[in-house]
Amino acid sequence: MKKYDVIVIGAGPAGGACASQCAKSGLKVAMLEDFGFGGTCSLRGCDPKKILAEAAGVVAQAQGLMGKGLENCPTINWEDLARFRDSFLRGKKEKSQKAYQDLGIDTYNGQAQFVDQYQVKAGSDKLESKYFVLATGIKPVSLDIPGEENISSSDDFLALDRLPKRICFIGGGFISFEFASIAARAGAQVCIVHRSDRVLRQFDHELSAKLAQALADAGVDIHLNRPLISVTRDKGNLMVKAGKNDHELIINADMVVHGAGRVPNVDKLNLNMTGISVSSRGVEVDKYLQCKGNSRFFAVGDVADTPFALTPTGDMEGRTAAANIIKPQSMACEHTGTPRVVYTAPPLCAVGLLEEEARKANTKIRIIHEDIAGWFSWANAGQKFAECKIIIDEDNDLIAGAHILGMGADEMANLFAMAIRLRLSVNKLRDVLWAYPTKGYYFRYMLG
Ligand SMILES: Cc1cc2nc3c(=O)[nH]c(=O)nc-3n(C[C@H](O)[C@H](O)[C@H](O)COP(=O)(O)OP(=O)(O)OC[C@H]3O[C@@H](n4cnc5c(N)ncnc54)[C@H](O)[C@@H]3O)c2cc1C
Questions:
Q1: Which residues 6+ apart lie within 8 Å of 176 measured at CB?
Q2: Which of 20, 46, 308 has the most ligand 1 atoms within 8 A of CB, as the residue to mutate?
Q3: Are the beta carbons of 274 and 266 closer than 8 angstroms?
Q4: Is residue 14 within 8 Å of residue 135, measured between CB atoms?
Q5: Per DSSP, what are the bridge partners of residue 344?
C-alpha cells in the first residue's frame, strides 16, 4: 500500500494544475488517469476542435470576400486536415505524463475506484491518501431513446479521417454549433436538431439567434422544438426521428452526433462510502472547492458544481484547490469575468453577466446593443453577421457583461475578461489608445 499526501483522479487541465502545484510545494502526489494524460481539452476537445475550426474559419472569411476582390474560394481537403490534426496529437499523452513524472508525481494508468474513504485502487494498485481531488470531468448524458447506440460521440467526430456526406447534430449547445460550422464549411450537408426554441443557453439569446441565422446562411438546417424520438439504422443510412405528436420530422444521415449535454463523470468511482454529494450539476463543493460531506475531498474542473465547464476555469479551480490543500481555506474560488467562446465562423463570446442576470442584480444598468456588421473592421472583411451587446453597471462605472458575435469576437473576449476581472472602470478604459484599424479599436465604441 502506497501512501500519499494528495491523490488526484483525472489528468485534465483541472487535475493537472492541482497536482503540479501540490508537487511543487513538496507534497507527495499521485495522479490516476484512465484515458490519457492531458484530458479532454488537449486530446478530444478544445485543441483538435480548434485545428478543424481554424480551416473552417479561413473558408468562411474567404466566402465573405468573394466578389469583393477574391475569387476561387478555398476548399477543405478533410484527409489532409485530419493528418494535420493528428500531428498535434501524436505522443501528447506520453509527453504530458512524463511532464508530471518530472515534477516528482507518481502516475498511474487505470480507472480509479474507491475502496473506502481513505483508499482508492487503480488496476492492481491500492493507494492511500490524506486528501483526494476529484477531477474526472463530464461525459455525454444518456439520451434514453430507441437507437441510442447509433449515435456517435464528439470524440468520434473529432477523430474522423473522412467526412461523411450528411451529418445530423443532436442538441443546440456549443459542441453542435461548432461542429456544424466546421462540417458545413468542409462541404457536408449538415443539420442541428434541438428540443426547445432556445439554443446556446449560456450565451446571450439575441446574439445566439443571430449566430443561428449565420449558420443557416452557411447551409446548416437548424430544427428547433424537435425533441429527439429515435435514431434507427438501415444498412448505411441512419434515420433520425424528432418532434412532438403530429409534428414529426424525419432526417436521413450518414452520421448522427451527440451534442446534447453532459453530466458529471463519477459513476465508476464508487463514491457512496465517501459521504460526498453529487447532483446532476456536479460534485457539491464550498467556495474553497472542498466537498460538502467530507473535508478530505476536493472537486475541481468540469466535475465540480461550479459555474462553468471550461479549460481556463478548470485550471484556476485546480490551482485554487491546491492552495487550500497546502494552506487550508486560504483561497476562495473566483469566477468573475470568465470568457466563454463558441468557435463557430463567426465566433460568439460571452464575458461576465448575461442580460437576464444583470437585470436581476441590484444596480442600474445601461445596455449598448448594436449591429456592428457595418462598422469598418467587419465591413472591410465582407462580414454579414456581427453584433454586440455590452452591459454597463452604471452605479459602479464597470462593465457587467460583454457579448459579441462576429469575426474577432474570440480575441475581443480576452480584452473584456481583463476589464471585468480587474474591475477597470469604464472611464479609465475610455482613456486607452487602441491600434487602428483593428477590431479591438472598437472596444471603446462598444462602451457607448
Ligand atoms: C468537444 C469539446 C470541445 C471543447 N472545447 C473547449 C474550448 O474550446 N474551450 C474550453 O475552454 N473548453 C472546451 N471544452 C471543455 C474542456 O475540454 C473542459 O472544460 C476541460 O477539459 C475540463 O478539464 P477537467 O480537468 O475538469 O476534465 P477533463 O479534461 O475531462 O479530464 C478528466 C479526466 O479524468 C479521467 N477520468 C474520468 N474518470 C476517471 C476514473 N474513474 N479514473 C481515472 N481517470 C478518470 C478522464 O479520462 C479524463 O481524462 C471542450 C469540451 C469538448 C468535449
A1: 169, 170, 192, 194, 257, 259, 260
A2: 46
A3: no
A4: yes
A5: none
CA-wise closest residue to 204 among 356, 421, 417:
356
Q: Is 109 in the pocket of ligand 1 (CB under 6 A)?
A: no
Is the pTM for the entire model greater than 0.85? Answer: yes
Tell me the Cα Rg of the chain.
23
What pLDDT is stored for residue 362 in this prediction? Answer: 87
The CB of 316 under 6 Å from ligand 1? The reply is no
CA of 308 to the centre of ligand 1 (A): 12
Q: Which atom of ligand 1 is nearest to the CA of 175?
A: 1
Q: Which atom of ligand 1 is nearest to the CA of 50?
A: 8
269 near 110, Cβ under 8 Å?
Answer: no
Q: Is the CB of 45 under 6 A from ligand 1?
A: yes
The CA-to-CA distance between both ends of the chain, in Å, stands at: 63
User: What pLDDT does residue 157 have?
Assistant: 98
What separation in Å is there between the alpha carbon of 302 and the centre of ligand 1?
Answer: 7
Q: Is 42 in the pocket of ligand 1 (CB under 6 A)?
A: no
Query: Which residue is closest in CA terms to ligand 1's atom 31?
Result: 12
Query: How far does residue 331's CA lie from ligand 1's centre (Å)?
Result: 24
Contacts of 95 (CB under 8 A, 6+ apart): none
CB-ligand 1 contact for 175 (6 Å cutoff)? yes
Maximum Cα–Cα distance for the chain, whole Å?
70
Q: Whose CA is nearest to atom 26 of ligand 1?
A: 301
pLDDT of residue 245: 73
Closest CA relative to residue 76, chosen from 1, 182, 197, 198? 182
Question: Quick one: pLDDT at residue 117?
Answer: 87
Q: Is 404 in the pocket of ligand 1 (CB under 6 A)?
A: no
Residue 119: other Cβ atoms inside 10 A:
17
**Could you list the mean pLDDT of each consecutive 10-residue stretch along the chain, which spans 448 residues?**
96 98 98 97 98 98 97 97 98 98 97 93 93 98 97 98 98 98 98 96 97 98 96 96 88 98 96 94 98 97 98 98 98 97 98 96 96 98 97 98 98 98 97 96 96
Ligand 1 contacts CB of residue 268 (under 6 A): yes
Which grid coordinates belong to 236?
448505411
Q: Where are the alpha helices (DSSP H) in 149-226?
A: 154-158, 174-185, 205-217
**How many angstroms separate the alpha carbon of residue 238 from the centre of ligand 1?**
29
3-state helix/strand/coil string of 251-280: EEECEEEECCCEEECCCCCCHHHCCCCEEC
* Residue whose grid cell is 466566402: 63
Given a contact cutoff of 8 angstroms between Cβ atoms, the answer to whether 214 and 383 are in contact is no
